[in-house]
Amino acid sequence: METKKFQIVNAQSNIDWTGRKVTGAHNGTIGIKDGTLIFTDGKLSGGNFVIDTTSIKILDVADPATNAQFAGHLASDDFFSIDKYPEATLQITSVSANHVQGDLTIKGITHPVAFDITINASNGDTVTASGKLVIDRTKYGIKFRSGNFFKDLGDTLIYNDFDLDVTITAKAA
Predict the structure, then answer these.
(1) What pLDDT was estimated at residue 66?
(2) Distances from the Cα of 6 to the Cαs of 37, 82, 84, 109, in angstroms?
(3) Could you tell me the residue range of the domain that residue 123 belongs to?
(4) Which of 36, 38, 50, 126 has CB 3.0 to 4.6 Å from 46, enough for a Cys bridge?
(5) Number of domains in the chain
């Protein structure tokens, strides 16, 4: 068995996020700080990555003042508490074909997640991987305007699930 470790290239890796509410959606990006992918006999077998929660950006709000206010709210304890938790992590625990299971930690709270992944090997030294995670924010203590915890929110309700579309480029270590 040959095991090969690939280091994530931060500048060529990204996460696009989408959060939805009754009246529409918001989207943006968040950076990957560090991580590795491990391949055994040419197949993904493990890995982890660190998400830089301080890098969260909102792309769909053009007004600078509104954007800054929204970013501040996402950074607050209502959402990601980035002063206290500047990082989130994903640890891959198992891989079966293109199905990945792992432990996602946000705000110091860890829950299992599962998602499908697509892997492309451009050559023996570089791989790209992409996948979409659908996360229930309330499992991580993010309850702001959740219909599970607050009544009569009307059109201010924010849906519990948010999407993370992850694209990673990694080079052989």
Answers:
(1) 87
(2) 5, 28, 30, 27
(3) 3-172
(4) 38
(5) 1
